[in-house]
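R.M. (postdoc): so does anyone remember the format we settled on? I'll just put the structure tokens first.
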């Protein structure tokens, strides 16, 4: 291969990788003056700017302000709005009073309605909720405005549901599905969400049956930048992350599409989820989904979307969304195996393949996978050891996380070039047998255990074609081989980034292994590079450059702030108080209260209110006892009926509180909270004895109606929290410095009162 060909093919490979990412999203350009019939990203962003002025979780003053803003914007369009209000506890006993916003556009026919869905509450305490999910609300507001300007008379009704209390347990969606009369009219849901502040928006299907008809109709709608694959939803279904749409699927048997972006994960649920940090290209991407789907599904037959059949689907540059039936999985796999076997027979008969050299080809492959897999697996542990403050980023994606991904991808490439340079005397055609066999094993396993990933077979067909070329030509056309490498680059490159971005840097092994496996598919062209050692050194130099860059950006500043936490915990039984924190590496701000006398918690660790990642207090220290008004606990009923003891207990706050959590180890026959019955399944599978978490609005009471065995003694442990530690007049806590933010996912800036009470 000529030197110029090597350089050009390498540049083409780099460009293909770049294009695999660039083609996922539309570009952003200022469009505030766009025609009224068009979706304007700038006009949508103005809604985000208004919604994300302040944190607006349930129970916070700005929650009402945001609701009133959304209602007024809908009414400006001439829509009649309504409010649905009521208690609900979801599936996790997270009680709240949800206040949903509803509007409806009447269609010309009486078929099923299309429902547009997003939530307006921000994560509790400190998040401004610009992305999660102010971006979704803004997308719907601007999309509906443009739609009405262009097509005021749709065939199907369009229901707009801006739900409440999503962050607390999908409560607003639960309330709508269980109690609202419009639920029976809904044929399809489009839900807009976020788990970061940028990046492409992924389409994820929610269905109880097959996805074939949904994929067919989605393809007909023809959005310009579909980012979707059946593997992502297969993984999504395995994770504990749900959206409002999950409630529609599980409780209402209503199907739909999620559109959610996950990049810049470090902003998720934090005080950095602001208008300024929301990626404008991401907002444009959300709009590019909504408008064609709104046009299509406002006219389509929504009664015929359910299917027993599934489709494999994936996006690829130039072809948008590619799909084919599940029935093709095993025939395609069988065809690939047959082609491989026939090519092996052909190669050995022609003596192009040498058994000894084919056997040697397994060594570099296994060595590269072992080294890169181990480095990827242990890198997060090592990074946390080197930078202990990373432990305080609970979701595990650091501000310099993208640099780390690039670093370990470069390291993996360097290892691959170095390993294969050691076997440069083995001809490329012989080296290629082991990777093809490995990929066929992988495709067979995913076809059986993870069918959504069966499209992995597509690049294997391309590498089989390259294998055939190598069997017949000593010096094949390098550009043909590069062309045959494109399916692997286009399909797999985005996965290298997706896993550690979405699931945290603990998933770096997925990035290093995907990089290695993709490199193996590129062997038909890379195997002809004679200067592999130089490329290995180049990759290693770039790796160290990225690591050095990440090191210099490993600290915290105004834009990349350290998560910090502080609580005042009063044990009402002993009348003793402690300062407590969830920080592993104490900030200067926290050290003021947990200084030299800090210690690891013992008994207090059991009195930690529940959190997303099951985090517990890391340090505590003695605190002065303050006169915190105590909750009023009243027993209004205690009677025996048959073999059951029935108790009604009312807990009324005597200060402004945000959250009440009740635990009990007493066996429960049944339980209701504020008349909302908790399911028998939940009562049998309670975590750490949790009975209920009540996210309180307007300082309302918590009324427990419990049934226990008649001879049992009821013991309740109650945790009452208010998020006013920094503003309470009894304390003089200074404001956080600019390079600190409240730690998300846990109770923070709170005055927590714990009390245990027995009912003999």
């Amino acid at each position: 291969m000529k030197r110029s060909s090597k350089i050009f093919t390498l540049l083409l490979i780099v460009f293909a990788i770049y294009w695999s990412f660039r083609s996922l999203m539309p570009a952003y350009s200022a469009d505030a003056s766009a025609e009224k019939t068009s979706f304007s990203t700038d006009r949508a962003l103005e809604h985000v700017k208004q919604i994300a002025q302040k944190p607006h979780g349930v129970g916070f003053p700005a929650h009402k302000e945001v609701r009133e803003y959304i209602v007024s914007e809908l009414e400006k369009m001439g829509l009649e709005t309504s409010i649905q209000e009521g208690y609900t506890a979801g599936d996790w006993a997270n009680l709240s009073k949800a206040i949903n916003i509803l509007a409806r556009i009447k269609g010309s026919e009486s078929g099923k309605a299309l429902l547009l869905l997003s939530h307006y509450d921000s994560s509790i305490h400190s998040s401004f909720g610009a992305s999660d999910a102010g971006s979704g609300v803004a997308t719907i507001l601007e999309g509906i405005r443009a739609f009405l300007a262009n097509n005021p008379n749709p065939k199907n009704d369009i229901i707009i549901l801006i739900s409440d209390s999503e962050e607390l347990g999908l409560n607003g969606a639960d309330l709508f599905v269980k109690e609202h009369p419009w639920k029976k009219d809904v044929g399809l849901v489009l839900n807009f969400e976020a788990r970061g502040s940028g990046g492409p928006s992924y389409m994820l299907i929610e269905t109880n049956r097959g996805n074939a008809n949904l994929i067919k109709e989605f393809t007909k709608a023809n959005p310009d930048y579909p980012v979707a694959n059946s593997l992502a939803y297969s993984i999504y279904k395995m994770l504990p992350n749900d959206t409002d749409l999950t409630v529609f699927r599980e409780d209402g048997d209503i199907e739909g599409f999620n559109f959610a972006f996950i990049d810049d994960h470090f902003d998720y649920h934090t005080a950095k989820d602001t208008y300024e940090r929301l990626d404008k290209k991401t907002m444009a991407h959300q709009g590019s989904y909504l408008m064609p789907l709104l046009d299509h599904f406002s006219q389509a037959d929504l009664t015929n979307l359910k299917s027993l059949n599934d489709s494999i689907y994936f996006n690829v540059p130039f072809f948008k969304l590619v799909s084919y039936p599940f029935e093709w999985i095993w025939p395609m796999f069988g065809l690939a195996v047959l082609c491989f076997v026939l090519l092996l027979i052909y190669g050995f008969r022609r003596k192009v393949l040498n058994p000894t050299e084919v056997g040697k080809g397994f060594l570099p492959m296994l060595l590269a996978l072992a080294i890169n897999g181990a480095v990827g697996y242990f890198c997060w542990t090592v990074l946390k050891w080197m930078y202990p403050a990373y432990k305080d980023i609970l979701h595990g994606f650091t501000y310099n996380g993208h640099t780390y991904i690039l670093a370990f991808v470069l390291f993996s490439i360097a290892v691959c070039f170095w390993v294969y340079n050691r076997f440069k005397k083995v001809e490329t055609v012989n080296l290629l047998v082991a990777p093809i066999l490995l990929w066929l094993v992988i495709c067979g396993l995913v076809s059986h255990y993870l069918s959504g990933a069966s499209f992995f077979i597509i690049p294997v067909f391309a590498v089989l074609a390259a294998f055939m070329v190598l069997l017949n030509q000593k010096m094949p056309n390098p550009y043909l081989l590069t062309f045959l490498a494109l399916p692997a680059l286009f399909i797999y490159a985005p996965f290298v980034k997706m896993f550690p971005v979405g699931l945290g840097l603990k998933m770096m092994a997925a990035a290093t292994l995907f990089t290695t496996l993709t490199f193996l598919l590129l062997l038909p062209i890379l195997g002809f590079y004679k200067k592999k050692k130089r490329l290995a050194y180049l990759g290693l130099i770039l790796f160290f450059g990225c690591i050095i860059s990440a090191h210099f950006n490993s600290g915290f500043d105004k834009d990349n702030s350290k998560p910090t936490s502080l609580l005042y915990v009063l044990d009402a039984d002993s009348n003793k108080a402690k300062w407590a924190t969830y920080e592993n590496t104490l900030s200067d701000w926290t050290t003021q209260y947990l200084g030299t006398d800090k210690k690891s918690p013992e008994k207090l660790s059991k009195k930690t209110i529940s959190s997303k990642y099951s985090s517990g207090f890391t340090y505590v220290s003695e605190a002065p006892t303050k006169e915190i008004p105590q909750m009023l606990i009243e027993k209004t009923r205690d009677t025996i009926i048959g073999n059951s003891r029935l108790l009604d207990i009312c807990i009324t706050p005597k200060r402004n509180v945000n959250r009440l959590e009740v635990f009990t180890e007493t066996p429960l026959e049944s339980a209701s909270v504020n008349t909302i019955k908790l399911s028998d399944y939940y009562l049998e599978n309670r975590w750490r004895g949790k009975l209920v978490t009540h996210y309180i609005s307007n300082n309302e009471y918590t009324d427990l109606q419990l049934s226990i065995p008649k001879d049992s003694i009821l013991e309740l442990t109650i945790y009452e929290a208010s998020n006013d530690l920094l503003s309470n007049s009894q304390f003089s806590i200074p404001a956080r410095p600019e390079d600190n933010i409240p730690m998300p996912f846990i109770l923070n800036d709170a005055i927590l009162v714990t009390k245990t009470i027995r009912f003999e």
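R.M.: ...and that's the designed sequence above, right after the tokens. Also worth knowing: The CA atoms of residues 260 and 324 lie 24 Å apart. The two ends are 87 Å apart (CA to CA).
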